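Notes from the pairing session

We agreed to fold both candidates in a single pass and log them together. This is the raw record for the first candidate, unedited. Please don't reformat it; downstream parsing expects exactly this layout.

Candidate A
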Amino acid sequence: MLPTSCGVCFTGHRPGRLGLSKQNEDELRFRLHQHIVKAVDEGFCNFYCGMAMGADIIAGELTAALREQFPELRLIAVVPFAGQCSRWPESWQRRWRALLSRADEQVILSPTYQQGCFQTRNRYMVDRAQRVIAVYDGSQKGGTFSTICYARKQGREIETVAPQ
């Protein structure tokens, strides 16, 4: 297992919650890029991506691209179940497959969908990270909120990025 002292994980909202127009995605990418570079500058090297549509994939794509500049950076794709993207729009499926192929490590937690598998994935990532970078709108419900609550209980650093 990789040391938690240099781990970062991502959590965040799906596309509908993010209001992802091209301009909004570009702005979000810019802000996430700043947080990732800051983490690398502070010695973080292992980045855990839950591979969900929206913020996860965007953060994972940025992390993969930054490996040219920071060769010590590692992208770990944490997939809650095989076939995670099978019901997504084709454009997101393509992004998911491309990102998965660029990951340094792939962790598939279950061969099939299981109730609670997304929470299992989120806890897996938080348990291996010291910092959480959360694309979070402040709502008090949903997977991102639950992940942030769990991370707080585990004493993790949390950096939030407003979706818009």
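Candidate B (folded immediately after A)
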Amino acid sequence: MKKDSIISYIEKNLSEKRRIHTYAVRDTAIKLAAHYGEDIEKTELAALCHDMYRGMKDKVLNMYVRELGLPERYMDNPNLAHGKIAAIMIQREYNITDEDIINAVSFHTTGRADMSLLEKIIYLADTIEPNREYPGVDEVRKLAFEDLDKALLKSMQNTIDYIEQRGFYLDRETIEARDFLLGKDI
């Protein structure tokens, strides 16, 4: 029931490009979940929900940031805001109460220290789905099915390097996630 409602939302509200991405993330996440023994239904729900608020106009996202009481750093930052908004709205709109799903949606862009298996899967599926093309993606894809933490570390370091080289805002959660993984001595 929830899944059908979420798919209906995706079909009505997301651009064709975003729909293709969302379904590719779902398929990739399910493969990772099967490989690592994560719950497939939870994985599918989180993957379908991860970008529900992506692609909205900045003005609309900023309204959500204000109304939901999210930190100021999410204003005018759709890349970071969309996951935080979606995590709150899936609770309100679809009565999703599973904290693991909520966190996987919330942190799918930034990651965070001490991520759960589901959080790691959604984060990586978002970065390695087959339509993604960027330097280093093939290495992360390979690592994702060998060692989840090594794949996360490589993906996060790629992101940090990319953002720093361009002078964009780097969310502290990504640094904390990377540093946590480095501390694990993987």
